[in-house]
Amino acid sequence: MEIDQLVAITGGKLLSKTTTPTFETICFDSRQATFRETELFAALRGQHTNGHQFISSLAAQGTRHFLVDEEVELPDHANVVRVESCLRALQQLAIYQRSAFKQTVIGITGSNGKTIVKEWLTAILAPTQYTLSNPKSYNSQLGVALSVWPLSNRFDLGIFEAGISKPGEMDSLELMIAPTLGIFTNIGPAHEENFNSLEEKIREKLKLFKRSNVLIYEADQQELAAVIDKVFAGHKLAWSRKGRAEIEVSHSPGQLSVQWNGQRLTFSTSITDEASMQNLTHCIIAALYCQTPLRKIQEGLDKIKPVKMRLELKRGVRGNQIIDDTYNNDLAGLGKALSFMEQQHMFHKKALILSDFIQSNIGKADLESLNELLMAKGIEKLFAVGPQLKEAHRAFHMEARFYNNTEALLESDDLEDLKDHLILIKGARQFALERVSRVLTEKVHHTVLEINLDAIRHNLNFYRSLLKPRTKIMAVIKAFAYGSGSSEVARLLEYNKVDYLAVAYADEGIALRKDGIKSPIMVMNPNVDDAFNMIRYRLEPEIYSLSLLREFHEAYNAFQKELEVHLILNTGMNRLGFNQTDLESLKEYLRYNPGIRVNSIFSHLAASDEDEHNHFTLTQIESFKQMASELSALLNYKPLWHILNSGGITRFPEHQLDMVRLGIGLHGVEVNHKYQNHLQRPAVLKTIISQIRKVKAGETIGYSRQGKAEKDMVVAVIAIGYADGYLRAFSQGKAFVCIKGQPAPTIGNVCMDMTMIDVTAIEAKEGDEVIVFGNEPTVSQLAEWAHTIPYEILTNVSSRVKRVFYSE
Fold it and tell me: Which helix (H) or strand (E) holds 492?
């Protein structure tokens, strides 16, 4: 797009102009900038960040186009367009592009299943129609704008999802998407707290379809259907499994049948669960309406599997790390996956295993732009699978190898050359690149701890929303980041501009430095024997006594290095720290030893989450302020003060001081239960059913015969025990796990590697997934059953349990 056209569409003002007149891509996050001359940076403002602050550094690195909405120092050799609102300007671009597009646009909304329906429908339609869709779940005010603006008449079809959480949000989304064909997936309780009634929520979502000709929905959702009958004026393509609509649908194992234009059409599918069948039905009816040949619909269905549509980070063989995004492949989704790859900056060697794109008519210009993007993101090796990429081999300027299909890649020995690489696997479904992922991924047993990095980011941003703009955050990631994985969580926190990290021991900090973490790190339990490595790896010790201070000072002096410390004061915890009576001798030592810099002064609250101890907590805070003031007065600079932990942030926000320490809150546990509904649970511990057996009444189960069958029952053995962190306290029905959303209580004693559960009331089979903790049951529930605290449940998950990190 020409920069003058941007000015005309947005009503902006061109503040400065360069000889580069056009831009092709838009970036709103300075951390994901490619610095190409054809990239526009939109300086958006958030609650704690402002994109305008990064303009000068981006310009210095090559960015030439900027969209701003406040006064900035104009960079040299750059196009700068000022508008009233950068977000609104991006939406205006999308509206403009959509208004010029004359082909079909499918809009999708609902409470659940939006992204799945969009992805599956794209998989069915894209092989025959050049399709543009949202990458992943880009369905917000910004996400939709960025998804729609590339729309042009070179595409045959647009498929976009829209999500809202409160009234009034759909109006701008409708202007950008303006669907000709709509799909309302379902209606459920999500965000119900922001609407006066279920009908109001349905009406708000239906605004997306106010200009649509046709709407697809399930008539068996009677409240939804009733509102649609009142509100939607277009043609209704309602379907039902209970005879409530003209389009009758039925399914049996391996098949789904649809009554369409007087014919009974039957499709084969491997999908079995109810929610997925609902999503699949929406897709089939949309494809039929779009006059897709039945053979092509079935081919698309054959590619659809009930897999996780998310990007996963796994430990690989030969020192590799694997980013598994093998569900689909389009240009927009690839860009997001590459940005995630860029966050894992401890790897200097990067490889990409890439299949042909689901769009059939990718052009020369697209491939040239792709090559530029891969070069900008530091891809050194490309393994390209499919005839589309092989034919375009001259477009790629890095080390590249090409294969006709996935079998050819697997049969070669080329993957064995990958060692200590960060490998992104990105593939369209028909290429089944998950087979490559299995070859490259480290083999472990079936119990895994899945960590949703998006949820940790969400929790971080929630706590940030409670802080004053100047308040810094120290993220406490000791004990393997509460069992989640220190390096992976640290990279996420660093990427999201956390000010400090805290670990328990020096070796934890050393491991983070070796993994490329550059943020300041405080060591809470330092040992002077580690002084050399703490200097080498720039780790800052917590100092809790004068003798420890002397030892570290002498050690650092020996290496002629300044000692940067964090002084902890004892205000009532009576664990570590200087007492009030120690301050005079501490001040005297600091006064006569200028080679010490105090980076922060802090204390621990003993009971910040308990109402009955409020007075004691406030007494601690006041005592800390007095002691910290006395020490700070001695110095010619002001150290950071901090005393609030996760519980203190929510209960004593007026005492944020210079910094707060955030630990368990990042992992979705709000110890005060005041804001639990605002947090997401990142960790899900999963295992599988190893074996199922029938046990007759009177027989016993497990060691010491502690489990007894009061009646004939069905018992499943699951692949987790106390060696994995599942406590023996959960034995004999004192806890339950979930299978297909249904609780299955333990029976007998928890063993070292296995646990027995009662599945008499559940249609379970060997190999079924078992949720040990997550949304149900929660970590807090397990802690209550074991008479302990959530911290212990999380940190007890043993290192032999595989960690899988993912981003939606």
Answer: helix 486-495
* Residue 517 burial (10 A CB sphere; 0-12, 13-18, 19+): buried
Q: What is the dihedral of CA 257, 260, 265, 270, to 10 degrees?
A: -40
Q: How many CB atoms lie within 10 A of CB 805?
A: 27
DSSP per-residue string spanning 560-625? T--EEEEEEE-SS--SSSB-GGGHHHHHHHHHT-TTEEEEEEEE--S-TT-GGGHHHHHHHHHHHH
Task: Give the pTM.
Answer: 0.75
Nearest in space to 224 (alpha carbons), one of 378, 116, 371, 110? 110
Instruction: Supply the angle between the helices 331-343 and 486-495 in degrees, to the nearest 10.
Output: 110
The whole-angstrom separation of Cα 149 and Cα 99 is 11
Condensed to tens digits (0 to 9), the pLDDT of residues 86-122 reads: 999 999 999 999 999 999 999 999 998 999 999 899 9
Place of tokens 């009177």: 698
Q: Which residues contact 31 (CB under 8 A, 6 or more apart)?
A: 342, 343, 495
- First-to-final CA distance of the chain: 30
Positions marked active-site = 478, 703
Distance CA 277, CA 281 (A): 6
Q: Exposed, middle or buried by CB within 10 Å (0-12, 13-18, 19+), for 58?
A: buried
Q: What is the pLDDT of residues 587-611, one digit of tens each?
A: 999 999 989 999 999 999 999 988 9
Structure tokens belonging to residue 672:
């005060």
pLDDT tier at 306 (50, 70, 90 boundaries)? Answer: low
Give every CB contact of residue 682 below 8 A, 6+ residues apart in sequence: 451, 452, 453, 455, 456, 459, 484, 666, 667, 668
130: left (phi > 0), else alpha (psi -120 to 50), else beta? beta
Q: Burial, 443: exposed, middle or buried (Cβ in 10 Å; 0-12, 13-18, 19+)?
A: exposed
Name which residue leads in pLDDT, 404 or 194: 404
Question: Alpha-carbon distance 98 to 116, whole Å?
Answer: 23
Q: How far is CA 787 from CA 447, 613, 671, in A?
A: 24, 21, 15
Phi, psi of 573 (to 5 degrees): -70, -35
Closest by Cα among 71, 47, 69, 66 to 55: 66
